[in-house]
Amino acid sequence: MLDYYQIEYPTFDYICTVKISNKTWRHLRSHRLNLVSDYLGFNFNHHNALQDCLACSNLLIKACLKEECKTPIELAEHLEIGVGKLFSKGYKPCSINGH
Questions:
Q1: Would 75 be classed as within a structural domain?
Q2: How far is CA 64 from each of CA 10, 13, 26, 92, 99, rounded to the nearest angstrom?
Q3: Higher model confidence: residue 99 or residue 82?
Q4: What is the extent of the structural domain holding 26?
Q5: Number of domains the chain contains
Q6: DSSP summary character for residue 52
């Protein structure tokens, strides 16, 4: 849509909640949002944009609490997850241990 309306892309950092759940709850067989949310006791309507956002937020908060980190950036550093970045003309993916 941004291209269609010729709107400049925003620049922002991001962290992948799948990577966070992989590093935080290694014992889980799958790290799909609905399965991790079930494990954390968070019920939501999967594939609903608002509900998925709330589930991701819940996952991030629970991971920060479990790992005793005060911010998502501190959590990423603690888990050795590289922060991704979206910018005009592209993006840098979120990574685990530089991969």
A1: yes
A2: 26, 17, 15, 23, 22
A3: 82
A4: 12-96
A5: 1
A6: H
